[in-house]
Design brief:
Blueprint (H helix, E strand, L loop, with lengths): L14 H4 L5 E2 L16 H10 L4 E3 L7 H10 L1 H4 L8 E3 L15
Parallel strand pairs: 1-2, 2-3
Helix pairs in contact: 2-3
């Protein structure tokens, strides 16, 4: 285990102890699967997943507009009114991003 900064700090938990075993993947929030992923009922999907106890979401800039769509869904009042931010995890990728990705909307 890795030790945190400073003396007397608690050991950092293993990732499998923190991240839930079931994660909702959002790769389908992208044009590879639907013509306009912004038309998907993403807020309903996310809200229902949280209602059922799924409290982790996987996304990536490589999934086209997935990060934006997921962010909008998580910010929707149907989600924020019932599910506090500290009760779910966001998992994404970082590293190799093209600056002119045509699948992303500003």
């Amino acid at each position: 285990m890795h030790e945190g900064a400073g003396s007397g700090s608690q050991p950092r938990p293993q990732l499998h102890e923190v991240i839930p075993p079931l994660v909702l993947g959002t790769a389908t929030f992208n044009t590879q699967y639907v013509a306009d992923p912004f038309d998907l009922p993403a807020a309903s999907i996310v809200s229902r997943a949280l209602d059922l106890g799924v409290n982790a979401f996987d996304t990536s800039p490589y999934y086209g507009p997935s990060e934006t769509i997921l962010g909008n869904a998580l910010a929707h009042p149907s989600v924020t009114s019932r599910h506090a931010r500290e009760f779910y995890f966001l998992v994404t990728k970082a590293g190799r991003i093209a600056g002119d990705d045509p699948g992303r909307r500003a």
